[in-house]
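Please decode residue identities from the backbone states below.
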């Protein structure tokens, strides 16, 4: 799959190129992919594509708690969160640079655009909630730049919900590939992983404060809110409220 025509993308894209493992997994509705760091900065990391193509789980739904206004799912994949939001009468749009993912999201009329988060996004500055699920804070390999970009997409009272890693201090950025169980491997692409404590400093540099941290079915989430540039310090994650 070429991503060169997608606005805002000029490098390798998640799981794309060469053996197209991500496209194959979505086409087959199943599979476990491994995220591998090209330089060995971190060990292989398993990604359960099956959970992305199924309906949203109770843990997934916690990220929609309190949401009523426009919700943007960045890197929506086949669209389970867009579907779950719409089912709760929350206006929702998914964006993704993978054509097969966008096509899958649209299958039942759910809204998705083939668009990079770093390109032109509709309703810029008016999204009440922006979602970065399933490790999507790794998009582009620079969480600070991604969070700053997502901050720009938010309405003044909006928030970003980020799924982060259980390892609190984890912070890795590297070129990665995705490989499936049959050995089909993608082109390298920049990616990052970040833990639930490490994200606090990164968010602060992006002009955000962590307002909440919670754990659902073993998965960690934080909710980040914009901080006026005049406010120097954010709420420490350890003091953040326990629920979204
Ligand atoms: C780890 S997968 C997450 C899957 C997804 N959340 C789901 O429910 O299936 C990362 C997703 O982010 C997408 N992605 C990668 N770079 C992107 C970008 N710059 N803008 C938007 N989406 C991107 C990939 O195509 C892929 O679908």
């Amino acid at each position: 799959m070429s991503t060169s025509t997608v606005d805002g993308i000029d490098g390798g894209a998640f799981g794309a190129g060469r053996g197209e493992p991500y496209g194959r997994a979505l086409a087959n509705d199943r599979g476990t992919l491994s995220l591998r760091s090209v330089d060995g900065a971190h060990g292989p990391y398993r990604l359960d594509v099956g959970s992305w193509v199924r309906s949203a789980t109770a843990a997934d739904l916690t990220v929609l708690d309190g949401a009523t206004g426009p919700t943007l799912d960045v890197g929506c994949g086949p669209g389970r969160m867009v579907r779950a939001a719409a089912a709760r009468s929350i206006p929702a749009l998914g964006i993704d640079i993978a054509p097969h993912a966008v096509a899958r999201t649209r299958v039942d009329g759910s809204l998705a655009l083939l668009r990079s988060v770093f390109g032109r996004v509709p309703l810029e500055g008016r999204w009440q909630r922006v979602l970065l699920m399933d490790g999507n804070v790794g998009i582009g390999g620079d969480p600070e730049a991604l969070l700053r970009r997502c901050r720009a997409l938010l309405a003044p009272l909006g928030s970003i919900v980020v799924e982060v890693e259980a390892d609190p201090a984890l912070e890795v950025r590297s070129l990665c590939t995705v490989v499936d169980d049959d050995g089909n491997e993608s082109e390298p692409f920049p990616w990052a992983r970040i833990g639930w404590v490490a994200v606090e400093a990164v968010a602060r540099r992006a002009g955000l404060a962590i307002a909440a941290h919670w754990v659902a079915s073993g998965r960690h989430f934080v909710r980040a809110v914009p901080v006026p540039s005049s406010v120097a310090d954010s709420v420490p994650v350890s003091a953040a409220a326990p629920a979204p």
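Observation: Residues 1-10 have pLDDT under 50 and may be disordered.
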